[in-house]
């Protein structure tokens, strides 16, 4: 049976067709010039055009399946480069220095294009395609872990329990986001997991083991078998829940990674965009560098892929230009270029980029490379921007997010709320139960917020027991309901203190960014509202009231806008 052609295959084939048409037209324009060059007359501009054409073909032909054309163009590009560098422009007009053999090879290029066999769009290794926005589904294996499965349900995970090995269970449900298994079954589970991943065209689910043997040998054996985590019996369920949340966050992070691609070759860029989008990346493409700084500020990519050769611009200088802004000093910039010369590559890297990807690159290599670079970039950014205790944004980064969101609100006008949260009577918690217990309370509030808020919201630990949250596309009335729910939920949690269990509460002040002439004013207004809530008895939410309007009018105006 013929393999099914997907919409993606069709689009890739269309791009290949466009590439072939454009190249055919450009090579046809070259033909009459070759005759002049044979007669020893050559204009320097024509030579530059020839060089640019060969450079483009060297970098992109392989991606569209014209491998021979790409290799030949790459060799000819080097030869023409030598001519350009060694001959005085004035000489070119009268005494053309291009060897007859090179001219003959140039005249054969269109035949290489025609002769190229119809190329099936490059096969994508679907194993590389990441989980896409699935809810965390835990598959807990075998009867011995039934109680653990139930405990995990109380943490809000969607748990499926299978009494035996999944290969012996006809109803066993897949896909699972994460699998939890007794260590003794790991080998069989990993084999089943990999086979499922292949048939479902997905990356294998991470496997967490529950073991009893804490020896070096036992741990080493589990690592060799492919375990992604190990927890000893009796399992500390909160620790396990935290690891599950981390794995889930990593899966979502992969999916949400943002890639900015700047290359003036339209078909090639579109090809890369399709391939990376299909692999779960959020890709923005630019063909002209002029709007680069505005796009960086708006899109905020995790990495930038930058073509080196974009006449009249140079990618190397653009990388330097990006680095002029302190905000982008640590943004990973990766050159995409057909430049093979290692010395030139190293020189280019010294100007401000981090990596060099040499074109042509296969789809699989592109996905793998971008995925690794995005992951590394996110890990680094996290280290720099996150608060160590809670994992939320630290003070300077939540302020940076606020400035950025305020600018977006000014431009786009969407309703955006800001909240300040402060734990109530927290000094007493510390004094009575110690700082360690106080830290547990702070972490618990951070977890409640992470669970309750959207991934598009910005969560930061502003100070010791104070949090700032920015909610784009959220009106004041919606935020008020949301934070009332957070306050209620948080007040129900039990903490273990020095003299038994206790509860903690939090107060919230809210304001809407749209109503203020600057982000600092909005922050101060939310702080005023927080102060009022503290005065009014804590454990609740107060919205900032515009001096001109009463509370109802404030919310009513919010609803009708
Ligand atoms: N455990 C812990 N305590 C912290 C941390 N950062 C700040 N704190 C404590 O948080 C307490 C804040 O107390 P106050 O500002 O007096 O306010 P409060 O007792 O919460 O009272 P109200 O805000 O009026 O409800 C102080 O005791 C700080 O030492 C931290 O990282 N961990």
From TrEMBL:
Cofactor (UniProt): Mg(2+)
Coiled-coil segments on the chain, per record: none
Modified residue annotations for Phosphohistidine: 55
Pfam families assigned to the protein according to its UniProt record, in alphabetical order: GGDEF, Hpt, Response_reg
EC number: 2.7.7.65
Assigned GO CC terms: plasma membrane
GO BP annotation list: cell adhesion involved in single-species biofilm formation; negative regulation of bacterial-type flagellum-dependent cell motility; phosphorelay signal transduction system
Superkingdom of the organism of origin: Bacteria
Domain HPt: 8-116
Residue ranges of domain Response regulatory in the record: 258-374
Molecular function GO terms recorded: diguanylate cyclase activity; protein kinase activity
Keywords: Phosphoprotein, Two-component regulatory system
Annotated ranges, domain GGDEF: 414-546
Modified positions (4-aspartylphosphate) in chain numbering: 307
SMART domains documented for this protein: GGDEF, REC
Swiss-Prot/TrEMBL catalytic activity: 2 GTP = 3',3'-c-di-GMP + 2 diphosphate
NCBIfam families: GGDEF (TIGR00254)
Protein name: diguanylate cyclase
The organism of origin for this protein: Oceanisphaera profunda
